[in-house]
Each structure stands twice: as C-alpha cells, then as structure tokens.
Amino acid sequence: MIGSFSQVIKKEGVGALATGLGPTVVGYFIQGFFKFGGVEVIKVKATEQLGTRKAWEYRLPIYLGAAATAEFVADVFLCPLEATRIRLVSDPTYADGLVSAVPKILRQEGVIRGFYSGFAPILFKQIPYTMAKFAVQGYAAEKIGYAIGKKPTEMSDATKVGVSLSSGVIAGVAAAIISHPADSLLSMVNKEGAGGTGSVGTRLKNLFFEAGFKKLFLNGLGPRCVMIGSLTAGQFAIYDTVMEMTGASKFNFINPDA
Known about the structure:
By secondary structure, this protein is mainly alpha-helical. The protein has one domain: Mitochondrial carrier domain (Mitochondrial carrier fold, Alpha/alpha barrel), CATH 1.50.40.10. Helices cover about 80% and strands about 0% of the residues. The chain starts with a helix and ends in a 13-residue tail after the last helix.
C-alpha cells in the first residue's frame, strides 16, 4: 500500500491523491446521512412494532433489513457522484472538478448511462457491505459489552468510544472482504468502453470473465481491509460521539432477560 502511494506521487505528483475528492466528500456525506440515520430510524420503528423481546430475538434480521433498505435509498443519491468520481480519477483531464464534470457527463451521456450505469453494481457492492457492516458491528459491540460486564447505559463516554472503535474495525474488515469483488467491478464498469457494448448486465458479465477470480477477489484486498477497517471504526466512533454531544442516545437492542 505504501509502495502504491509512492508510485502515484512519483508519476503524477501529490495532487493526484486528491483527484476526485470533491464528489467523494459530497457523495459519501449524503450517503452517510441516509445510511446511518435510516438504520437508526428503522431499528426504532421495528422495536416499537415488535416489542422489546421480539426485537431482541430478531435483532439480526432487523439489522440486515434496516441496513439494506437505508443503503438502497442512500445509493440513489450516491451513484451519480460516485460515477463522477471514477470518471475524474480514471481521466484527470476530463474536467476540473465536480461542478464542471457533472454537466459534461449529463450533456454527453445523459442521466441513465452517465450517472446510473453503475447503479446495479453499486447496489451489489454497497448493500452486502452495509448489511455486514451494521450487523457485525452490532454483534461485536454486544459481545465486547458482555466481555467487560457492562451494558451500553453503564459505560463511560471513553468506554463507549473504545467499543465503537473496536467493533468498527471488526465490522469494517468483514464488510471489505464481502464487498471487494463488486467494488472491483464497479471501478471497471464506470470507465468508458469497459465491458464492450450492450446492457449493464452484459458489460458486467464480460468484465467478470475478463478480470478473473484473482483480480476481482484478491487484488488490493489487504489495503482495502486496512482502509475500510480504519474508516468504519472512525465512522462509528464519530457517530456515537456526536449522538452523545447532541444529547441523543444511540438505540441499542435490550435483552429482556439480562
């Protein structure tokens, strides 16, 4: 991973590391708003409908369903910005940034092909990723709480952050492994001419066979696990901290027999 950074800087300069930063920041901020907020709302509503005991018993399906639903909505907003980011990264001369790239893509390719040709693979990547992320984080945080002998309501602020960071790393690595093949396909399909002509499904099929198992499943997996593990840990720590600072409390499933 360090060698890759060095090569990029040597060949293209330090500025290459910031290529596509605009759509990345905007896109993932919007996505995070709908994703984290959506999961929290759905968990609360599901518990209100099912009751505390049944919600505890079915917490895994609730995590998975909430994550999948929230991610789908978030990806409707993320996909155009992700397509723009990939275009800027793959061809730095395409446009100066987000503001100039969006109208150019719209004018040349239209809404569907320009911004949503990668919608199917982004769902294929992001939905399993988010399902694993929230389900594993919730399960890991629960087990860490049992190990230290404290419920979330009994933990100090510092302990809560520590639990968030630890469970976030575990969740991030799991999510990175699950979503890696689809992420590789997504990066390919958004490049102009990739996968030949035809529908998105046809192009994805062509790319799948062209790339092969190793390139899709293993290439870049190590750095991805490090990056996503660190990012996810930070996300949950920041999310929980902001919730505490604003006087809100993160919803936790409660074991009625504990």
